[in-house]
Design a protein that fits this description.
Elements (H helix, E strand, L loop, with lengths): L1 H24 L53 H4 L1 E7 L7 E7 L4 E7 L7 E9 L5 E8 L2 E14 L2 E6 L2 H4 L5 E4 L10 E10 L4 E2 L7 E5 L4 E6 L2 E9 L4 E3 L3 E2 L10 H8 L2 E7 L2 E6 L4 E7 L2
Antiparallel strand pairs: 1-2, 1-8, 2-3, 3-4, 4-5, 5-6, 6-7, 7-8, 9-10, 9-11, 9-18, 11-12, 12-13, 13-14, 13-15, 16-17, 17-18
Length: 302
């Protein structure tokens, strides 16, 4: 009986092992791979409707800046025609009138002296001038003898014969009547005309002043009455009058540079206020000072 049970158990065990081996030989079912979904066609994102760019604004022609004498292109051929002294008597709102003297020096310096005929000192303005490519004299006033302007005053002049007329200027400064001046012609100036340098000042008390460098003290007398002076480190503009013997200078508008301590600037400037007469002898110019103060001796420059 026990043998029968053993045989049955053995047979059952073999059957189970055989069944297990058969199961291991079958492939394990796997999930059917699902093909990836086709990527949706990319739909371009909507773009903003194109915005019309504003049309470029029309280009404005460049505005011309006021042309100053230093900026204007010089017309050196026409400049000698303008150089000289011009005067005018014009009305004034708050005084008996205005006596104007404009000096255009050949070296490009300018002075404008305005006397309101009211017993007050005249106003002396200084600056520079050139003739531009249009044949117009552009005068730039930088300030007065004791102060500079915040902005230069520019006046453009046209010349017709001996008449100088402002064609561009500030009417609030010079009036709406216009600014027309007449060129001065002088008598008895032929011997004075030219350039001179100071060599000595001889005083009646036997003292003297001799410049270390005469070339730093020069006088240029122009045929039309203009006067340009170099007084050491400063330059001045003015006019002169003579009848061939007597000699007078207008107030001289000097620049205000500080000269060295040994400079003769102040001494020369004081003497110019008391000029009385002159004489030319052997190429020397002797300018006599009033009240027999002394004599300024100058030699002609070649």
């Amino acid at each position: 009986m026990s043998q029968m049970y053993g045989f049955t158990f053995t047979l059952l065990l073999c059957f189970m092992l055989t069944l297990g081996a058969c199961g291991r030989g079958q492939p394990t079912p796997t999930a059917t791979p699902v093909a990836p979904a086709a990527e949706a066609e990319a739909t371009p994102e909507p773009t903003a409707a194109p915005v019309d760019e504003p049309a470029p604004e029309p280009t404005q022609p460049p505005q011309e800046e006021p042309t100053t004498a230093s900026a204007a292109e010089a017309n050196t051929e026409a400049a000698p025609d303008f150089a000289g002294v011009y005067t005018a008597e014009l009305p004034a709102a708050s005084s008996p009138g205005r006596a104007i003297t404009l000096t255009l020096a050949v070296d490009g310096g300018v002075s404008l002296v305005t006397d309101y005929l009211n017993e007050e000192p005249p106003i002396v303005e200084v600056g520079e001038w050139v003739v531009n490519e249009k044949g117009v004299a552009v005068v730039t006033l930088m300030g007065q003898t004791d102060r500079a302007y915040d902005a230069p005053v520019v006046i453009a002049f046209a010349l017709d014969g001996a008449v100088l007329s402002a064609v561009e200027y500030d009417q609030s400064l010079y009036g709406a009547e216009g600014l027309t001046l007449q060129k001065e012609t002088a008598q008895g100036m032929d011997t004075l005309v030219g350039s001179w340098r100071l060599v000595r000042i001889a005083y009646s008390d036997d003292s003297e002043a001799i410049p270390d460098d005469p070339g730093r003290y020069t006088f240029e007398f122009m045929a039309d009455g203009g006067l340009a002076i170099r007084n050491d480190c400063n330059r001045g503009m003015g006019t002169y009058k003579t009848d061939g013997v007597s000699l007078t200078f207008s107030p001289i508008a000097f620049t205000r540079m500080a000269c060295p301590p040994d400079s003769l600037f102040n001494e020369v400037a004081r003497n110019l206020e008391i000029v009385a007469s002159y004489q030319i002898e052997d190429g020397m110019l002797f300018i006599a000072l009033a009240m027999d103060v002394g004599i300024m001796e100058l030699e002609r420059m070649e």
